[in-house]
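Q: Two folds, back to back.
A: First:
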Amino acid sequence: MLNRKIKVGAVSYLNTKPLVYAFENGAMADEMELIFDYPSKVAQMLINDEIDLGLVPVAVIPQVQHAQIVSNFCIGATNPVASVCLFSQVPIQDIKSVILDYQSRTSVALLKILLKDFWKITPDFIASEVGFEKDINGTMAALIIGDRALVQLNNFPFVYDLAEAWQQLTNLSFVFAAWVANKSLPDEFISKFNVSIKASLGHIDKIVDSIDFPEYDLNVYFKENIDYILDDKKMEGLQHFLSKIGS
């Protein structure tokens, strides 16, 4: 039993807003501390036991001790996701190298699967640093995720949506991030946590109205690109993905 506030890590991207609206407006403030960062940073905090529960890239689940998914809500996709894409100046078959976004391990792992099994190309991989988007040129493409991907959608002649490619390859949905705990948490806390997330998802219209983001239609993003329900179909896609990266 934890005799302190439960530390909860969440992703600082727009697509998380519909999951945390209630928490940002005071729900469970006496029981939990909410911490925001980019996906791979939240994942590392969960691995290091710096937080108790996190919305983490699913690729790290095998690295989290005592990992357990504690919510039936997620960042998933049953359609093109729009915010996880490979951007290029040339068609996919002409790409020679790919800059890998440092902000998510799941998207990098997914890209490597798709390059090998779907597009069947073997480019060189390049680690990224802040501002790497400006380095996309010639046969050097880049994986960009999150809000920065939405900003870039109209800036390149070739944009390959990773969720869409996964669905074409496997006929399965994809889960980018799930709520994962690294220890047993009280049943009452988990129940209230999920009730609050469900309530948050009822405020999408209000959330959209509160955000100034002219680069992309957030109504489309939150209601069509992102699918927040972790159902059996998504769990099937998640298990298949984990089996691919573990083999």
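A: Second:
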Amino acid sequence: MRPRQSRAWNVRLRQALKNRRDFAQECEAEWRDFSQQPGTRLWWVRAGATQRELRTADRQTVASLRYGRPTTVRAGGRTYTRKRVHRSSRPRIAEIVGHSRPRSENVWAKINRRPALTNLRELCDETGLPVLYTSGNHVDRSAGARITFPDRRSLTFPVRGTRRTNAIMTAVDQNGNKIARYRLTVIRPLADKAEIIVHPGQPLTDELVLALAISAGWLSSYFQSSGGGG
């Protein structure tokens, strides 16, 4: 490498490192200010080896998720089951998911987008009726998971942060409205604890509770490696 090229490369490298440091500092400031944001505060906590609960600030459980085969979610006195989409149903559901792109997406969602139809699942009530679909993944620092409702409304979950201790995930609807924000407050293997703030004026419906319970673990998995590393 010629001296002039070497100097130019060093300048670009220093600028890139400075930009990274500045961005990390911005994320850390936003993370510290998170608890000052208005809205309904919820907690996502470990309640057993395979169970997580979504609780209010006064420790009332509004949803309980049990991992397994199948994974189930209990909310509003009802039990919902998460299933793989049957091959016969996949074309219809793929059309719903594929046509539910947000009109206005956060830039981080665009950067981190992964194919929408990978890992396609449905969450069904006791009668077998789907109440929401999940697709994509949050992994390898790529925010590709999304939730789509049968009427084609949808939520994406962009992440802003450089590591688990300064990252914030936001639930954004198909019109670009921010619905809820998430941050990790306890970071331990299989025992992460998340704080969730639902946007002021956003009613805490059973539908939203289910979406929050399904998505709460995605902020942690965003930093995991699909190759098995952390």
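Q: And?
A: The mean pLDDT is 85.
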